[in-house]
Amino acid sequence: TVNSLDLALPLGSYSVCFLSNASSADLIMPEQPTVASFYAANIFSNGAADIFGYVGVIEVYKAQSNEIQLQRLYSQIKIEFTDSFGLDQITKVVIDQGHDPFFFAPFNAELTNPILDQSAVARNVDFSANKQFVFNQFLGILNIPAAVSYRVLFYQDNNLLRTLNLSSSLLNNMQLVFRGSALSGVDQNNTFLIIRNETWSGETTVDF
């Protein structure tokens, strides 16, 4: 997607940050930001958010056109299930974040984390066609991998079937895949098909 933005700026050098948020919720930002206090974050429950951004310096020395390429400020987390049967028991998945909430402060690396977010990604699911659960983790722009951890709760209606803890580390603009059994150690709903074997095992003839 290509968009344009026209600005009338005096000649000079500018530190800039552009953000793009395609989601059902607004970004979390200060009401009256300064350069030092500016930050952006995404509430964790908004797990389908498509957030891109750019931070850099623009030199304005004449009437000019600049191309700004935004990059992903999130990574995709995918949980793939290897269970051959039983996933139909799971009707809802809830994911809590075990790490501190992430925020993006492009102009102040020392800013204290201002985000209080205890929300969860929660969805009703049907794994009959696709045995995976996908959500986006907002990270900002990272230079070194950040640790992430999740508590995954599997429900059948209102009954908790299993709790699973997952952890790893990653940068923004990555795809992280967790793969394994969703229902390991959980009693399965077993179906027994009862049929009669109508085939005789043999024949014996006795003359009289």
How is the secondary structure organized here?
Layout (H helix, E strand, L loop, with lengths): L11 E11 L27 E11 L10 E2 L1 E8 L10 E6 L22 E5 L7 E7 L7 E11 L2 E12 L4 E6 L28
Parallel strand pairs: 4-10
Antiparallel strand pairs: 1-2, 2-3, 4-7, 5-6, 5-8, 8-9
Based on the model shown, name its key terms:
mainly beta, three-stranded antiparallel sheet, 10 strands, elongated, 208 residues
Can I get a quick summary?
The protein has 208 residues and is mainly beta.
Write structural notes for this entry:
This protein is an all-beta fold and 208 residues long. 0% of the residues lie in helices and 38% in strands. It contains no helices and ten strands. The strands form three sheets. It has a four-stranded antiparallel beta sheet with strand order 6-5-8-9, with no helix packed on it. It has a three-stranded antiparallel beta sheet with strand order 1-2-3, with no helix packed on it. The chain starts with 11 loop residues before the first strand and ends in a 28-residue tail after the last strand.
Shape: elongated
Number of helices: 0
Helical content band? under 10%
Radius of gyration: 26 Å
Tell me the total number of β-strands. Answer: 10
Give me the side-by-side strand order of the main sheet.
6-5-8-9
Distance between the termini: 93 Å
User: How big a fraction of the residues is strand?
Assistant: 35-45%
SSE order, as H and E?
EEEEEEEEEE
In quaternary terms, these chains amount to single chain
Q: Averaged pLDDT, please?
A: 88
Parts with pLDDT < 50 across at least 5 consecutive residues: none
| Secondary-structure content class | mainly beta
Largest sheet: 4 strands, antiparallel
